[in-house]
């Protein structure tokens, strides 16, 4: 009898926990276009390919058919993703015929990402931009949505397959270019001489690998510059604590480090205490931009070069998806170039920008206004 | 006074037995891992002296302290025959509360610490009730608690917590007589825990409940209370680990606690505590945490790639498990004197076990 009572209580407790989690959970939100109308009023003129001939509905890529639009994210819970989602909402809001904007978050779980895409197709969305973090694992789901009539546009991470057969368009960028921009800057900033440490993300990550290839090629013209330590990169998993441990280890091992290149500058900024502990100066840094890093540069004075974090790349994907679904003018290029953003040495294209009123994880290369940035980051 | 009275007085009362000295047992439990750690530092000094340089130690020791404190909480739970899979979420929750609530304002740090403690203790109490009163397996109960707490983490931080307050960062990087504050806190907590467990009635009863639940109940101990209290005390330790980590890492992520689950279990195993429950040593666990941290640092400075680092960690764990799990004495005896055919006498286990149960 006691065992039955215990079983009943435990079942009720489990049910209660499940209901509480479901009530409090906020993984997928269903937002109508109305919530982004305020953002549309103050939207910047960004967007990588806003065509000149705007119709009464909006830009040229905004056709006449009314559609529902979805952004299927693989992992939504960091500052880069939140700002990117803000950019996508802002871009979609420019087209009055996008009547609904749905956002789903795969939470880093491949199974959830797959079921999110299937769910969107089942709901009958007309256009979907997908961030295929799990790569080829989500290709079948993307293909299913494509064959179900959803205009499907994966971007930034290659899901495999072929545009036209498995999905409509793939919007890409060349991460080698980012590495090449870093390398070119190092050639000048280090006067063709010095030791460079390269930090990357998880093991065998395609972005970090491509950046290393670009970096290596760009510094080949300066035989005095050497990439020391682990190649292609020290694994940090883009985690601030792991980055701090790696920086501690390299400072202990290498007495002369002239530059650090990394694809996650904010994590490196978190590890600056390791330099003061080791009584070492912060070397030249080449990375993607971050408000915190820029504000630290203003305080500590190290040489800094950043490439654009490309949050606005999603706008190109939105343009393609909405154009195809609404019958608008489809943009011409699916390749989004890497661009330099800040250079503390030359000041071109921008000097280092620090905005203390914005959160430290704000990304200033984004095409959102400061108000929109705060909104996107949940301030 | 007659001679017989004096004789009677000088005799000890017949019911009193000499209290079992825990010092030799305590030392014996920690000995293998202490020797291993000393050997590791010696090897590091010889082959990679950069890994034990002053600045490298200053960088490694705070992380070792955090792992030691978290692993101590895990040790307490494991000693009760359970395992705590909510370590990542407890640490992450503490970190996001300590960063999101103050949002850079050092004046709000103390209330944030109180909130974090209250939240983790409440979570620990709920886990304790589910395990001890309702009877759900610890692995399931704590796994569920981990998931629920991560929901709270995301709700509080929206996935990206702000940087830590300057007051906490200053405290975490501060030193007393050249020793990092986090290390001092870890040493004090370890000494306190070891003293309470080995030298107080509460501690001995705690080990008795872990060694044999039914026997402890039969002896009249309130086993449920000890089990419940274990999860609450463990939660407090995870919270302290999270507070220190929030100060050490200036811009922590919302999931900073993720990397502390497996290492906390590894430290428990390498310290010699049986995963089946019973006797254990928080001192051995803390030393094992130092061993793991220095091993990682040594391999990193050596320049080995991630694959090699993972293999080294796994190898250390396998060796540690083998040392404690394989019955070496029995094997040695069987090798020297193989038993003849027919019945074999049941050999007593080498471990003395707790008296009276």
Summary keywords:
heterodimer; A: 379 residues; alpha/beta; Rossmann fold; 7-stranded mixed sheet; 5-stranded mixed sheet; 13 helices; 17% strand; B: 357 residues; mainly alpha; ABC transporter involved in vitamin B12 uptake, BtuC; two-stranded antiparallel sheet; 15 helices; 70% helix; disordered N terminus
Strands, helices and their partners?
The complex is a heterodimer of chains A (379) and B (357).
Chain A: H1 2-24, E1 29-32, H2 37-41, E2 67-73, H3 79-93, E3 98-105, H4 110-123, E4 127-130, H5 139-147, E5 151-154, E6 172-173, H6 175-189, E7 193-200, H7 206-219, E8 224-228, E9 234-235, H8 240-253, E10 259-262, H9 265-270, H10 273-277, E11 284-288, H11 291-300, E12 304-307, H12 313-326, E13 335-336, E14 340-343, H13 370-376
Parallel strand pairs in A: 2-3, 2-4, 4-5, 6-13, 7-8, 7-9, 7-10, 10-11, 11-12
Antiparallel strand pairs in A: 1-3, 12-14
Helix pairs in contact in A: 3-12, 3-13, 4-5, 6-7
Chain B: H1 3-10, H2 23-47, H3 54-79, H4 87-100, H5 109-134, H6 138-157, H7 166-173, E1 175-176, E2 179-180, H8 181-199, H9 201-211, H10 213-218, H11 223-248, H12 261-270, H13 282-302, H14 306-325, H15 328-336
Antiparallel strand pairs in B: 1-2
**Class from helix and strand fractions of chain A:** alpha/beta
C-alpha Rg of chain B, in Å?
Answer: 23 Å
Helix count, DSSP H or I runs of 4 or more residues of chain A: 13
Shape of chain A: globular
State the total count of DSSP E strands of chain A.
Answer: 14
- CATH class descriptor of chain B: Mainly Alpha
The CATH architecture of chain B would be: Orthogonal Bundle
Largest interface: A-B, 50 and 44 residues
Distance between the termini of chain B: 42 Å
Radius of gyration of chain A: 23 Å
How many domains of chain B? 1
Number of helices of chain B: 15
> What is the CATH topology classification name of chain B?
ABC transporter involved in vitamin B12 uptake, BtuC
The CATH topology of the largest domain in chain A comes to Rossmann fold
In the residues of chain A, how many domains can be counted? 2
Query: Structural class per helix/strand content of chain B?
Result: mainly alpha
Largest sheet of chain A: 7 strands, mixed
Distance between the termini of chain A: 53 Å
Range of helix content of chain A = 25-40%
């Amino acid at each position: 009898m006691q065992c039955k009572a215990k079983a009943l209580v435990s079942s009720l407790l489990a049910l209660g926990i499940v209901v509480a989690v479901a009530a409090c959970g906020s993984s997928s939100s269903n937002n109508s276009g109305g919530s982004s109308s305020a953002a549309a009023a103050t939207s910047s003129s960004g967007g990588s390919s806003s065509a000149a001939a705007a119709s009464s509905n909006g830009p040229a890529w905004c056709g006449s058919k009314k559609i529902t639009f979805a952004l299927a994210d693989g992992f939504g819970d960091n500052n880069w993703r939140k700002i990117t989602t803000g950019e996508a909402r802002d871009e979609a809001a420019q087209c009055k015929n996008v009547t609904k904007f749905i956002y789903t978050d795969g939470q880093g779980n491949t199974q959830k990402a797959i079921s999110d895409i299937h769910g969107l197709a089942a709901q009958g969305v007309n256009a979907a931009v997908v961030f295929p973090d799990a790569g080829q694992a989500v290709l079948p789901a993307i293909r299913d949505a494509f064959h179900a009539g959803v205009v499907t546009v994966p971007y930034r991470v290659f899901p495999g397959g072929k545009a036209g057969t498995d999905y409509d368009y793939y919007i890409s960028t060349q991460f080698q270019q980012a590495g090449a921009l870093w390398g070119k800057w190092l050639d000048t900033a280090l006067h063709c001489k010095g030791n460079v440490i390269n930090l990357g993300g998880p093991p065998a990550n395609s972005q970090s690998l491509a950046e290393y290839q670009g970096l290596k090629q760009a510094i080949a013209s300066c035989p005095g510059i050497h990439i020391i330590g682990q190649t292609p990169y020290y694994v940090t998993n883009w985690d601030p604590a792991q980055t701090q441990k790696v920086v501690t280890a390299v400072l202990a091992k290498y007495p002369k480090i002239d530059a650090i290149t990394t694809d996650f500058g904010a994590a490196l900024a978190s590890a600056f205490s390791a330099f003061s502990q080791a009584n070492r100066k912060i070397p030249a840094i080449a990375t993607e931009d971050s408000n915190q890093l820029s504000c630290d540069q203003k305080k500590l004075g190290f040489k800094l070069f950043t490439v654009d974090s490309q949050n606005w790349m999603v706008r190109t994907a939105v343009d393609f998806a909405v154009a195809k679904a609404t019958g608008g003018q489809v943009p011409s290029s699916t390749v989004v170039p890497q661009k330099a953003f800040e250079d503390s040495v030359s000041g071109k294209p921008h000097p280092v920008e620090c905005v203390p009123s914005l959160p430290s994880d704000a990304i200033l290369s984004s095409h959102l206004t400061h108000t929109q940035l705060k909104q996107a980051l949940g301030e | 006074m007659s001679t017989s009275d004096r004789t009677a007085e000088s005799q000890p009362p017949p019911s009193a037995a000499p209290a079992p000295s825990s010092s030799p047992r305590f030392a014996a439990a920690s000995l293998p891992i202490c020797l291993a750690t000393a050997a590791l530092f010696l090897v590091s000094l010889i082959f990679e002296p950069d890994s034990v340089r002053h600045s490298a130690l200053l960088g490694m020791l705070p992380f070792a302290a955090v792992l030691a404190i978290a692993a101590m909480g895990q040790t307490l739970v494991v000693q009760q025959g359970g395992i705590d899979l909510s370590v990542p979420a407890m640490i992450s929750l503490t970190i996001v509360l300590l960063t999101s609530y103050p949002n850079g304002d050092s004046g709000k740090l103390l209330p944030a610490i109180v909130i974090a403690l209250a939240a983790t203790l409440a979570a620990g109490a709920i886990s304790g009730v589910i395990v001890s009163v309702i009877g759900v397996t610890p692995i399931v109960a704590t796994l569920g608690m981990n998931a629920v707490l991560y929901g709270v983490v995301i709700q509080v931080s929206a996935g990206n917590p702000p940087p830590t307050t300057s007051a906490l960062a200053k405290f975490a990087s501060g030193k007393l007589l050249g020793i990092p504050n986090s290390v001092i806190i870890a040493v004090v907590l370890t000494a306190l825990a070891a003293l309470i467990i080995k030298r107080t009635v509460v501690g001995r009863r705690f080990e008795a409940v872990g060694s044999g639940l039914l026997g402890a109940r039969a002896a009249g101990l309130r086993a449920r209370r000890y089990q419940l209290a274990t999860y609450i005390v463990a939660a407090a330790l995870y919270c302290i680990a999270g507070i220190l980590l929030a100060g050490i890492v200036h811009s922590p992520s919302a999931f900073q606690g993720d990397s502390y689950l497996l290492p906390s279990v590894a430290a428990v195993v390498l310290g010699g505590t049986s995963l089946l429950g019973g006797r254990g040593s928080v001192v051995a666990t803390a030393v094992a945490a130092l061993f793991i941290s220095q091993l990682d640092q040594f391999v990193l400075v050596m320049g080995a790639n991630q694959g090699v680092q993972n293999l080294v960690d796994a190898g250390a764990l396998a060796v540690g498990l083998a040392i404690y799990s394989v019955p070496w004495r029995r094997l040695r005896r069987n090798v020297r004197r193989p038993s003849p055919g027919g019945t074999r006498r049941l050999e007593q286990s080498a471990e003395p076990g707790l008296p009276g149960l």
